[in-house]
C-alpha cells in the first residue's frame, strides 16, 4: 500500500477531496469556512483549485489503497524557480470561496508575508485519509521527495501532532514560528535545511 506514484491529471479532483476530508477537523479549516455545511464543499474546491497548479509548478505524489482509491497525497511547489501565475486567480478564488472570500484573502496575505525567500520546495499539503493517519503514509511521501531534493523544504504546520511529525523528518521551527489569521488561528512555519 505504500507504492508512491505521481498523480494523474484526472486525479486532481480526488486529491482535492482527499485533502479536504483529511483536514476537515482542523481549526484552520473552521476559520476559513465557519459554516459546517459549507466547509467540505468549499474546501474541496479550494484544494482542487490549488492542486491543479502543482503539476506545472511542482508535483503531486499519491499512494493508493488496496481498491485503487487515493489514501495519501503530497502536493509540492518548486520554489527554486519562478512559479507560474494561476490564471484569473482572484476571480476563480472568489467564485469558489463565495462569502468566505475575505478569509481566503487573509490567508493568502499571511502566507505571502511570511514565505521564505531562499530557494526551496514548499510542501503545501500532506494529507492522509482519516482512519489511516499515523500508519506511516505521510512519512513515506515526505521521504520520497526529501531523498531527491538536494535543496531545503518549507511548510506550514497546523498543530502539535504535525509539528512532531515534521521534526522527526528534519524540519526545524522558524522565526517567527507561529503566524496567525485575523481571528488568531495559528499556522507554524517549519524549515528543513
Automatic annotation (TrEMBL):
InterPro entries: Acyl_CoA_acyltransferase, GNAT_dom, Trichothecene_AcTrans. This is Acetyltransferase (GNAT) family protein. Pfam families: Acetyltransf_7. PROSITE patterns: GNAT. One of its GO terms (molecular function) is acyltransferase activity, transferring groups other than amino-acyl groups. Residues 2-193 form the N-acetyltransferase domain. Keywords: Transferase. PANTHER family: GNAT FAMILY ACETYLTRANSFERASE, N-ACETYLTRANSFERASE DOMAIN-CONTAINING PROTEIN. It comes from Pseudosporangium ferrugineum. The keyword Transferase applies.
Amino acid at each position: 500500500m505504500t507504492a508512491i506514484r505521481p498523480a494523474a491529471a484526472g486525479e486532481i479532483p480526488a486529491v482535492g477531496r482527499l485533502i479536504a476530508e483529511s483536514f476537515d477537523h482542523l481549526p484552520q479549516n473552521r476559520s476559513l469556512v465557519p459554516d459546517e455545511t459549507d466547509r467540505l464543499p468549499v474546501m474541496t474546491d479550494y484544494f482542487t483549485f490549488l492542486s491543479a497548479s502543482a503539476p506545472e509548478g511542482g508535483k503531486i505524489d499519491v499512494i493508493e489503497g488496496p481498491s485503487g482509491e487515493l489514501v495519501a497525497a503530497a502536493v509540492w511547489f518548486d520554489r527554486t524557480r519562478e512559479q507560474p501565475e494561476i490564471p484569473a486567480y482572484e476571480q476563480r478564488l472568489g467564485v469558489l470561496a463565495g462569502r468566505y472570500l475575505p478569509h481566503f484573502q487573509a490567508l493568502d496575505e499571511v502566507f505571502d508575508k511570511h514565505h521564505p525567500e531562499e530557494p526551496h520546495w514548499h510542501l503545501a499539503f500532506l494529507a492522509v485519509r482519516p482512519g489511516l493517519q499515523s500508519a506511516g503514509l505521510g512519512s513515506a511521501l515526505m521521504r520520497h521527495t526529501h531523498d531527491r531534493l538536494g535543496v531545503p523544504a518549507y511548510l506550514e504546520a497546523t498543530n502539535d501532532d504535525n509539528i512532531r511529525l515534521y521534526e522527526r523528518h528534519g524540519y526545524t521551527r522558524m522565526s517567527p514560528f507561529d503566524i496567525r489569521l485575523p481571528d488568531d488561528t495559528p499556522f507554524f512555519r517549519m524549515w528543513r535545511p
